[in-house]
Amino acid sequence: xxxxxxxTPAAAVPSLQALxxxxxxxxxxxxxxxxxxxxxxxxxxxxxxxxxxxxxVPVLTPRTLRDxxxxxxxxxxxxxxxxxxxxxxxxxxxxxxxPRHGWINLHFSLLPAWRGAAPVQRAVLAGETETxxxxxxxxxxxxxxxxxxxxxxxxxxxETSGELLDRLAVEGAQLLVQTLDELAAGTAVATPxxxxxxxxxxxxxxxxxxxxxxxxxxxxxxxxxxxxxPGAWTQLRGERFKVLGVEAAQAPEDLVLxxxxxxxxxxxxxxxxxxxxxxxxxxxxxxxxxxxAADWARGAALTEGTAxxxxxxxxxxxxx
Length: 320
Hints:
Layout: E1 2-7, H1 13-20, E2 25-30, E3 35-37, E4 42-44, H2 47-55, E5 59-60, H3 68-77, E6 82-85, E7 103-107, E8 115-116, H4 119-125, E9 130-137, E10 147-154, H5 161-185, E11 199-200, H6 216-225, E12 232-236, E13 239-243, E14 262-264, E15 269-271, E16 278-279, E17 282-284, E18 291-292, H7 293-298, H8 313-319
Parallel strand pairs: 1-2, 1-6, 2-5, 6-7, 8-11
Antiparallel strand pairs: 3-4, 7-9, 9-10, 12-13, 13-17, 14-15, 15-16, 17-18
Helix pairs in contact: 1-2, 1-5, 4-5, 4-6
């Protein structure tokens, strides 16, 4: 089929690459406009645009699809389907009927679970061990359209949301191409979503603060779900301190730590929780690059009483 691909971040790149290597013809790519990045705020193309430019595929970067001229331009491309992966712009009702087979979204959850902007992160934050990906036809609702394909995936016990998203992006690309193949062959089956829907709201920096008074499993899920962005954080000696991963190391049997209290061994750093010490993985002290917790601890002058702040912003606001 003639397809119009819509996507922006790195997670959409495997799908575009898979489509470029498929039997389908990518007639153009829709992506967000170049954005300022880095300290110099230099305008840089999206990861999807970089791949499209290299492949010689025409690129469109409208700020909105509500513009009638933009919609006319899309109609001139005559796409039969428009696969979408993390595009970042709403598809208005007036544009939904432009491709004959519709706009086909690859979403990183088993719908109707985790509809919204952060399905991978919310699944990890919830402590789930199973997730997956879905392809569905976009309609006027928020991730409510009929499902065309599904594939499950496990969440590893130490896996961060960033690591999981990288893996699902590759596996999901295969599912997206398969769905388009079935649409082209006339064998695709659209199934209404069934079951309880959950919402995957965008993560905020405030909610990323770690609650050391929670059980170890909940703290682990929180750290992994918030990694790499916005990054789970706490405070140490009055400064913000990020914890970006956990490790499988077992604490000494006789080690008892209060919530937030730190203990460093030669190879690991443990932090107290409500239930048991948790081994920290990658950390980033204020003004420092991310590194293994054990490497950070060697230069941090930790004492037996060193502890993360257990007072959370939300708790302090509620107390006032």
